[in-house]
Amino acid sequence: MQIYLYNSLSRSIEEFTPIENNTVRMYSCGPTVYNYAHIGNLRAFLFADLLQRSLRTIGNFNLKWVMNITDIDDKTIRDSQLGSSVWLKEMGEQTHDPLKNLKALTKFYENEFLLDISKLGINTKHFYELPHATDYIKQMQNLIEQIYNKGFAYISNGSVYFNVAKWSEVDKYGKLKNIDWDNFKKGHRIDSDTYEREDVSDFVLWKQKKENEPYWDFILDNISLPGRPGWHIECSTMEYSILGLPFDIHTGGIDLQFPHHEDEIAQSKAGYGIEPNPFWCHNEFLEVEGKKMSKSFGNFFTLRDLITKGFDPLDIRFSILSAHYRSKYNFTFDGVIAAKKARLKVQDYIYKLFESTASPEILSIPNESNLRELVFSELANDLHTPKAIAKLFDFIASFPAEKLADSLKNELITIFTLINDIFNVWEINPKKEIDLQIPDEITILAKQRMIAKQNKDFAAADVLREKIKSLGFVIVDKKDGFDIKPL
RNA sequence: GGUGUCGUCGCCAAGAGGCUAGGCAACGGUCUGCAAAACCGUCAACACCGGUUCGAAUCCGGUCGACACCUCCA
Fold first, then answer.
1. Which of residues 274-303 of A touch strand B (CB under 7 A)?
2. How many angstroms separate the CA of A319 from the C1' of B31?
3. Which nucleotide is at minimal CA–C1' distance from A45?
4. pTM as predicted
5. Coil, strand, or helix at residue A227?
6. ipTM value > 0.95
7. Cα dist from A462 to A445, A451, A486, whole Å
């Protein structure tokens, strides 16, 4: 099926076709590993996952999906410095080597990050590579050198800056976002580095080392510049080194449009001479209770915070997928609970597909109600998950599982398997009878209740049911007996 | 200050000139001793004020409100 995607470059929905045959090369801006990922971060990764799964399943493309791990920046350096108050003992002993400390901290959070996204239903086997910025220092220096040699960079106080004014003579700077440069310069941008730049819009390619910071040697134009890379240069370099230029799609949060992605385009084009990628896809932000997530509002949640509160990561995945990726999503606990119920409703339907129908009433499904077409055509239209889900619910209501002929059920199992290759929140299996350990105490109370019930002493029966409930179990009456389930 | 997005039923969330989106909740029913679950059914909304139009949530202007970006940020 042809896939259409909104492209931030053209600000419109475009037909997507890969540059090279049937393989899509996609780069996603990944995490800076200085802390646990929060749900806002995770929305961006869930969006990238939705996109790559849709391309695989609906577009039938092979995927080369690359996501970088930023393991060097101001925050990772700050938090890994000797004596850091946020150093955890799980990271090991700190040393006097700043680079070793940096690696220990970032490795720890990288592992936690990979665990988190796995819980959210992202299959880490889908990644072609998860490159680390610190493994590409040489390549970054090489790119900086090319930019410098072509005259689009200058050295100032031991750092190297990109010359935006110079570059603007050659190509547009501001492709992804309209910037009012006159007012931009008047704006309250405050940066300690400002005075070292020729112009506030210039950005750093290479930062001079400071005391007790990790650094790499770098000789540019016969000048020794011990330091570390700027933030934007890493993506340009890794895209080039791993995927090659131009590649197909670049994803990231909408906040990265400017300056990060704008700077990436400028760097790649200035240095390598190639516009990096034709498609830019950005996801909107997630808010919590209608507000930007921030620690001061008390609405800042990491995935593990939510798991501690009893939320299932798959329900978080489904709740985030229930909003379109380009609209703000208002994350609320009630929303996750509603998503859970909706998700389980579909799950129950899937379970029923594995049960045989004794006297089926529905023997065929008309072509216009083909579930695969209904759902995939919505997803193919700029990943419209809310509509896809609505179509799914319409279908379930129109074709109840208990009325379907077995042959239809088998077809639907195949279709649900495909749909779940994208959503990845359901089990495409018969319902498993879970062997729960019911405490003897509960079983005894339940038996007492059944006896009271048989004696028509319903008052006593209700008291016993309440007692069982207070102990965390619920009694479900059946024709001749009862089931005990955890609350 | 500049730029942009958005205000849709109790909640979440689609729609972008005429055609019931959907989910959760609520209410009624089937089932049950009563429940729970499940299933069936009901229900409603387009921030405000003007304008364009035969017709406006949808287009235009204004007002109010929310949020974001311009600084590290998904």
1. 283, 285-287, 290-293
2. 32
3. B74
4. 0.92
5. strand
6. no
7. 11, 12, 18
